[in-house]
Specification:
Blueprint (H helix, E strand, L loop, with lengths): L1 E15 L2 E17 L3 E4 L7 E4 L2 E5 L2 H6 L3 E6 L2 E9 L5 E9 L13
Antiparallel strand pairs: 1-2, 1-6, 2-5, 3-4, 5-8, 6-7, 7-8
């Protein structure tokens, strides 16, 4: 199955002297879904349970993702934001992104996305 979507990064940026803030950015990537979505519900003590998927997405590395892979936070896929739980670089030049639950952190406004 093919993947085409955005990978979201949160890079710490100095907004004032000694004041650092995570600034979200996105880049568009294509690749393959290595494992289909296995949807499960994580039961918690909170009011709403968390939806978790156990999918892996493989994309070809470029210089930007090689430099910023520790800052990867989410993948926008199927109109949802999914948290990236880990990044596997052992099959270089391919990078495998392991997805988990719905991502609720900072994202980029649509007009700020970088192609």
């Amino acid at each position: 199955m093919r993947f085409h979507g955005f990978v979201g990064f949160c890079i710490q940026t100095e907004t004032a002297p000694d004041v650092w803030k995570p600034v979200p950015s996105e880049k568009e990537y294509s690749g393959e879904v290595l494992q289909k979505t296995n949807r499960s519900v994580e039961v918690t003590t909170s009011t709403n349970d968390n939806i978790v998927i156990n999918s892996r997405i493989s994309i070809v590395a470029d210089p930007y993702i090689n430099q910023h892979f520790p800052s990867i936070k989410y993948v926008k896929w199927n109109n949802n934001y999914w948290e990236v739980t880990s990044v596997d670089q052992t099959n270089y030049p391919r990078i495998i992104l392991n997805l988990g639950e719905v991502y609720n952190g900072p994202t980029v406004e649509p007009e700020q996305s970088t192609p």
